[in-house]
Structure formats: structure tokens, C-alpha cells
């Protein structure tokens, strides 16, 4: 077959869907029709993609007629219900939700790390990793290829847009309620100012950090922390990799940051690590503390690469590196990686 494949974007109105449409408008246009889909609430809205206004369709079986590849940017339960309906019609689904990531018959793909995995799709579905894992894994994958990864200990500093539009609206509302005052000086003053409705977060996020993301799992771990562990193992093909993650929400709109302690098989050198990071596709090494140069979310937001700074060898372990990593959670952390996977699959339609 050699033709331009038809694409559907399901969840086109959401936080990830909005960035997806921007990326589809910026990348080389390999697509035939692009169909936009969301809930019945959004049916009839017009959204811009590739410079044209396209009407949003309500999700239903008929929207998949004639579609080759569908990108799903919808809640887990919507993906779980509708992805099999799309694949039954011969559509290849690239899914951004957590519904299929750990299914052994669904590859979990990061094109810079394991592109080959996208070709084997027993269920017709390719899963996109979660944004926290994706914000570090391109850099970690490059280091693993050279040094052989043994252990990851990470702390995340996660942006509110990781919790969707609701997360962004919550932080902006709280910022307007706390601005200009003397808050943050006595217990509970920020809580009283923002009120009881803390949106998708269990505590105020303005003027605060919240050591929680996701839902409660066994033994006090959060779902987000388990995803970092399970998904890193699956992407890197290291089922016994030791991983400990602590996920924290910070008052940043978009771009997740992580501190990473990565332990390898053998001794590492900072010089070789820097060479690898400076040349790895999709990674930018930005690391000159003497000049005040290290990545911050305010500078990284809106960009595609994984930015790495503060590269150091662990003081007490010559086999370990310490890194600070930033990645836009809506671009590489979600929409960009999904589009890259779709482009890999689309290449199968044109050869
Ligand atoms: N935000 C991130 O950083 C991030 C990163 C990686 C993965 N993800 C995952 O990507 C998915 C989308 O996240 P998001 O942050 O973009 O969420 P969001 O901003 O809340 O958007 C949700 C989207 O899903 C649509 N939707 C909701 N219920 C639907 C239904 N019953 N039928 C059809 N469409 C429905 C919404 O349409 P309406 O506008 O019509 O309601 C909207 O387009 C989630 O699975 C999320 O976990 C998010």
C-alpha cells in the first residue's frame, strides 16, 4: 500500500490533544484526512490543525470508518472501552492512557529507545508511556546502552498539567487567590486562602509542594510511582531493574523535572556520560553550573528534547551518576512521543 494514511485524534480537545494538534501542524504532513474526536460535549466545536478548521465529532463506532491510525488521548476507562472497538475495525491505536501499558501483548514504545517494539502489535495497540517516565527515559536509555543500568532512584517535581486541564485551572485559580499577600507564614494560611476545593490535588499546590501523584497502591506507594518502576522496566527490557520513585507535585504549569540517581554495572566517568548525553538523539546537555546553566521548567516548556544538567558522579559510588532532567510533559511526555510512534507505524503504510 502506498498512500497517505487517515488519522483520528480521539480526545482532541484535552490538554494532550491540544498539543497534539500543534505538533501535527508543525511536523512534515504525512497524513491524508485528520479526523478530530472528543466527547459529545464537544461535538461541533471547530479546532485548528494544519492551518484549517476541523469540526469535532462525538466518539462513536462510525468515527473509525476508513481510519488507519487513531491516537487516543482520553481517560483510561474511555481508552479501555473504545480502543478495542477501533482495532476491531482494523485501526492501529496509539494509546496515551494507562489502560494497556502493562499488557504483555501491547508494546510500550519510546522511538529513541525501543522503536523495533512498535512493529509487533498482537492487539493492534501501541501504548505511550506515562509522562513522568517519558520525561527521563530518553536520557536514561542512552546511558544504559553504554553503561548497563542496574538501579534508578528518582524524585519527580511534576507540573500540574500532568493532571489535565483541571490541574492547570486549579493552579491558576489558586495563584490568583494567594497573589500579593503575606501568605505562607503560618500553618494553614494557604489552605484557608484557596478554600476546600483543591481540584485534582490532595492539598493546595500554589505556594506549596505536594508529595503525591496518582492513586494509593499497596504499602503506601502511589500509582505514579509504580508506573515509573513498571514502565521503565518494560521500555528498557530490564524486568528486574531496581527502581524507587517518589513523585511530587510542584506549582509549575507544564514540564516535569526529576532528580535521578542511576547506578550502572561498572564504573562510570562524567566525561563519557557527558559525551553520550551531548550526542544522544532527543537529548540536550545543558550543564554549566559555574555559568548558571542548568535546565529549569520555565525555560524548557514548549520544547521537544529531554534536557539534562547537574551531571555528577556519586560521591560514594563510582558506578552511579546524579542527574537533573527536565521534559515538557505534554510534548515528549505525551503528544510528541505519540505522534512519533504514529509516524513509525505510518511508514509501514507507505513502503
Ligand atoms: N497531561 C499529561 O501530562 C499526560 C501525559 C501522558 C498521558 N496522559 C494521558 O492522556 C490522556 C488524556 O489526558 P489529558 O491530560 O489530555 O486529559 P484532559 O485534559 O482531561 O482531556 C481529556 C480528553 O478526553 C475527552 N473525553 C473525556 N471523556 C470522554 C468520553 N467519554 N468520550 C470521548 N472523549 C472523552 C475529553 O473530551 P471533552 O473535551 O469533550 O470532554 C478531552 O478531549 C489521559 O489518559 C492521561 O492520563 C496525560
TrEMBL record:
Which EC number(s) does UniProt give?
1.2.1.11
Q: Which GO annotations describe the biological process of this protein?
A: 'de novo' L-methionine biosynthetic process; diaminopimelate biosynthetic process; isoleucine biosynthetic process; lysine biosynthetic process via diaminopimelate; threonine biosynthetic process
Q: Where along this sequence does the record place binding of NADP(+)?
A: 13-16, 41-42, 161-162, 329
Q: Which residues bind substrate?
A: 158, 249
Q: Give a Pfam family name.
A: Semialdhyde_dh
Keyword presence, Lipid biosynthesis: no
Keywords of the record, alphabetical order, are: Amino-acid biosynthesis, Diaminopimelate biosynthesis, Lysine biosynthesis, Methionine biosynthesis, NADP, Oxidoreductase, Threonine biosynthesis
Annotated binding of phosphate, by residue: 101
- EC category name: oxidoreductase
Summarize the subunit comment.
Answer: Homodimer.
List the protein's name.
Answer: Aspartate-semialdehyde dehydrogenase
Q: Which organism is it from?
A: Streptomyces kanamyceticus
Amino acid at each position: 500500500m502506498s498512500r497517505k494514511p487517515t488519522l483520528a485524534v480521539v480526545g482532541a480537545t484535552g490538554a494532550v490533544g491540544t498539543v497534539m494538534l500543534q505538533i501535527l501542524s508543525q511536523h512534515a504532513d504525512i497524513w491524508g484526512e485528520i479526523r478530530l474526536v472528543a466527547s459529545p460535549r464537544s461535538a461541533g466545536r471547530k479546532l485548528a490543525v494544519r492551518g484549517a478548521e476541523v469540526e469535532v465529532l462525538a466518539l462513536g463506532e462510525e468515527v473509525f470508518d476508513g481510519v488507519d491510525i487513531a491516537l487516543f488521548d482520553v481517560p483510561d476507562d474511555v481508552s479501555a472501552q473504545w480502543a478495542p472497538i477501533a482495532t476491531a475495525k482494523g485501526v492501529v491505536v496509539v494509546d496515551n492512557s494507562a489502560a494497556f501499558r502493562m499488557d504483555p501483548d501491547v508494546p510500550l514504545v519510546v522511538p529513541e529507545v525501543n522503536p523495533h517494539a512498535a512493529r509487533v502489535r498482537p492487539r493492534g495497540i501501541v501504548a505511550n508511556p506515562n509522562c513522568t517516565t517519558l520525561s527521563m527515559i530518553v536520557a536514561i536509555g542512552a546511558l544504559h546502552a553504554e553503561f548497563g543500568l542496574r538501579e534508578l532512584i528518582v524524585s519527580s517535581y511534576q507540573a500540574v498539567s500532568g493532571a489535565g486541564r483541571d490541574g492547570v485551572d486549579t493552579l491558576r485559580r489558586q495563584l490568583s487567590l494567594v497573589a500579593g499577600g503575606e501568605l505562607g507564614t503560618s500553618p494553614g494560611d494557604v489552605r484557608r486562602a484557596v478554600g476546600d476545593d483543591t481540584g485534582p490535588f490532595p492539598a493546595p499546590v500554589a505556594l506549596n509542594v505536594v508529595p503525591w501523584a496518582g492513586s494509593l497502591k499497596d504499602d503506601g506507594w502511589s500509582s505514579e510511582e509504580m508506573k515509573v518502576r513498571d514502565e521503565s522496566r518494560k521500555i528498557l527490557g530490564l524486568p528486574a531493574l531496581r527502581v524507587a520513585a517518589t513523585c511530587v507535585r510542584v506549582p509549575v504549569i507544564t514540564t516535569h523535572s526529576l532528580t535521578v540517581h542511576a547506578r550502572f554495572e561498572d564504573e562510570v566517568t562524567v566525561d563519557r556520560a557527558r559525551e553520550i548525553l551531548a550526542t544522544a538523539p532527543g537529548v540536550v546537555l545543558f550543564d554549566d553550573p559555574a555559568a548558571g546553566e542548568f535546565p529549569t521548567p520555565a525555560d524548557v516548556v514548549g520544547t521537544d528534547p529531554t534536557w539534562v544538567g547537574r551531571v555528577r558522579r556519586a560521591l560514594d559510588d563510582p558506578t552511579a551518576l546524579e542527574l537533573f532532567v527536565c521534559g515538557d510533559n505534554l510534548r515528549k511526555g505525551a503528544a510528541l512521543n505519540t505522534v512519533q510512534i504514529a509516524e513509525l507505524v505510518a511508514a509501514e503504510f507507505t513502503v
